[in-house]
Design a protein that fits this description.
Oligomer: single chain
Helix content: 55-70%
GO molecular function, one term: aspartic-type endopeptidase activity
Catalytic activity: Release of signal peptides from bacterial membrane prolipoproteins. Hydrolyzes -Xaa-Yaa-Zaa-|-(S,diacylglyceryl)Cys-, in which Xaa is hydrophobic (preferably Leu), and Yaa (Ala or Ser) and Zaa (Gly or Ala) have small, neutral side chains
Pfam families: Peptidase_A8 (PF01252)
Subcellular location: Cell membrane
Radius of gyration: 16 Å
GO cellular component, one term: plasma membrane
Number of helices: 4
Number of domains: 1
C-alpha cells in the first residue's frame, strides 16, 4: 500500500517539477506575448498568462474567486487521489494516471497561488486551426485523465 503512495506522489512531484522548470525557462527566455516559431506553420513557444482553466476556459480578468475555486478543486482532487489509491486494486495504469493528474494539479496550483494566473507556452496551429496555449501541467492532467479512464475500461 505504501509503495502506491510513493509511486503516485513521486510521479506527481516529477510532473510538477518539470512543469515549474519549463515555466521558469519560458519566463526567463521569452518576453510576454512574444511568439517564437519552432516549427513554421505548426508550433510556437509563447509566454502568456491564463487566469482561467485548461486551454483558456473561464479566462476572466476577475481572478480572485478563481484562485480559491481552483485551489479547492486541487485539494478535492488530492483527496480523491488518496481515496482511489487506497481502495483500488493493483492497476499500474490507474496509479500512473493519478500521479500525472496530481502533478498537473499541483503545478498549476503553484502558479495560481503565486501569480493569480497560469503560465502557458505551448502553442499549436495548422491550416487555420489554432489550439489555445497550454503547459506541461495541462498535459499531465489530460494524459492522467486518459489513463484513469483506460484503467476503468480495462476493469469492465
Amino acid at each position: 500500500m505504501r509503495s502506491r503512495f510513493y509511486y503516485i506522489y513521486g510521479l506527481g512531484l516529477l510532473v510538477a517539477l518539470l512543469d515549474q522548470f519549463t515555466k521558469y525557462w519560458v519566463v526567463t527566455t521569452i518576453p510576454p506575448f512574444i511568439s517564437v516559431t519552432v516549427i513554421p506553420g505548426f508550433f510556437n513557444l509563447v509566454n502568456v498568462r491564463n487566469s482561467g482553466a485548461a486551454f483558456g476556459f473561464l479566462n476572466d480578468p476577475d481572478t480572485e474567486w478563481q484562485v480559491w475555486m481552483f485551489a479547492a478543486a486541487a485539494i478535492i482532487a488530492m483527496g480523491i487521489i488518496n481515496y482511489l489509491a487506497k481502495t483500488s486494486g493493483k492497476s499500474c495504469c490507474l496509479f500512473t494516471g493519478l500521479g500525472f493528474v496530481l502533478g498537473g494539479a499541483v503545478g498549476n496550483l503553484i502558479d495560481r497561488v503565486r501569480l493569480r494566473s497560469v503560465i502557458d507556452f505551448l502553442d499549436f496551429h495548422a491550416m487555420g486551426w489554432h489550439w489555445p496555449a497550454f503547459n506541461v501541467a495541462d498535459i499531465g492532467i489530460c494524459v492522467g485523465a486518459g489513463l484513469i479512464m483506460l484503467s476503468m475500461l480495462k476493469q469492465k
